[in-house]
């Protein structure tokens, strides 16, 4: 069967990576979480003092250091899923912290950061057989992707899912802070100048607010079969 490129974009915490991972596992494709790449650059900036006390970014210094920020993914043999590495160190857990979540959309709005990461993402997907999730995959990274999905869900539903996930992991969480973060990132991501989050004209929209995990998995698998049978 011919291999295709699958782009999954949408709002924060709406289930993009869950859907993308499930599909990649099911059909034997590579999965790439592009949000993790922006989170790694943010973690680098945090660890290297590139935010001041008011959270302003030292943009000139970050731009100078971009070539030193090496991003990669290593396979977790237990889950079979790729995990983010920053300069060779596995940072999969660190990049999910609220400290990173609060700052990542500001880093992701910087044109030189986007240029560098989009270039890497295109290289990762050049052989096709890839499921990539993010905000600009169907619009900018792979505008010719054979299957594009745009996922939405009610903001309170998304925040509740994230809250439940953190609680289940035994991590202290506050619903209102999570909701605020989700809504703030949606706003910044949709209003930035370069590659704002928007539905590609040829993307299929899915509102999964009332869908179960298994229903959305099956829904995506059906779209995959339609796209590969054409
Ligand atoms: N249909 C669903 N019903 C219930 N929970 C769901 C559903 N889809 C995803 N979730 C849960 O919601 C949480 C967020 O999902 P996920 O991490 O896949 O979102 P995301 O869009 O990739 O988020 P982000 O943009 O922040 O990376 C996870 O805990 C996931 O298990
Ligand atoms: N293609 C992308 C992917 C992500 N971003 C930015 O990164 C943030 C974190 O992404 P998650 O998927 O882990 O939530 C996100 O809020 C965006 O600011 C992006 O710009 N483009």
From TrEMBL:
Keywords: ATP-binding, Cytoplasm, Kinase, Nucleotide-binding, Transferase. It is found in: Cytoplasm. Its EC number is 2.7.4.25. Gene3D superfamilies: P-loop containing nucleotide triphosphate hydrolases (3.40.50.300). It catalyses: CMP + ATP = CDP + ADP; dCMP + ATP = dCDP + ADP. CDD domains: CMPK. This is Cytidylate kinase. It comes from Xylanibacter rodentium. The lineage of its organism: Bacteria, Pseudomonadati, Bacteroidota, Bacteroidia, Bacteroidales. The gene is cmk.
């Amino acid at each position: 069967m011919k291999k295709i490129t699958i782009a999954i974009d949408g709002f924060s915490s709406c289930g993009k990576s869950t859907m993308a991972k499930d599909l990649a596992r099911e059909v034997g494709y590579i999965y790439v979480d592009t949000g993790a790449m922006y989170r790694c650059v943010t973690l680098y900036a945090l660890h290297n003092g590139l935010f001041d006390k008011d959270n302003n970014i030292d943009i000139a210094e970050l731009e100078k250091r971009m070539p030193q920020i090496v991003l990669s993914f290593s396979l977790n043999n237990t889950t079979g899923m790729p995990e983010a590495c920053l300069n060779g160190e596995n940072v999969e857990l660190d990049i999910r912290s609220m400290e990173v979540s609060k700052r990542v959309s500001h880093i992701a709005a910087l044109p030189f950061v986007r240029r560098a990461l989009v270039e890497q993402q295109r290289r990762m997907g050049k052989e096709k057989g890839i499921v990539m999730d993010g905000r600009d995959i169907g619009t900018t990274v792979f505008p010719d992707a054979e299957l594009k999905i745009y996922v939405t869900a009610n903001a309170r539903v998304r925040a509740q899912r994230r809250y439940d996930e953190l609680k289940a992991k035994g991590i202290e969480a506050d619903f209102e802070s999570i909701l605020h973060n989700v809504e703030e990132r949606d706003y910044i991501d949709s209003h930035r100048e370069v590659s704002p989050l928007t539905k590609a004209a040829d993307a299929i929209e899915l509102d999964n607010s009332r869908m179960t995990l298994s229903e959305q998995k099956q829904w995506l698998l059906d779209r995959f079969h339609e796209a590969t049978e054409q």
